[in-house]
Design brief:
Blueprint lengths: L15 H14 L3 H20 L4 E4 L5 E4 L3
Antiparallel strand pairs: 1-2
Helix pairs in contact: 1-2
Amino acid sequence: MADANETVTVSSTLPKDLFDVLVDLAKKRGVSANTVLKDAIALEKYVSDKEANGASILIEEKDKTLKKVVRG
């Protein structure tokens, strides 16, 4: 694993619709697609670690109801 300050180049092939989502997210946030990808990986790591320790992911709706996020 590379240290935190080292960078590596990664190439990926995405379906066009998923690429379009990536570009749209970047535009909405005012950041690069690369930043969206880095944030997504960091979030996935955080959530995965929490789930491995028995945690659940909950979404609070506008009406204050809670929904459990179930991942496959």
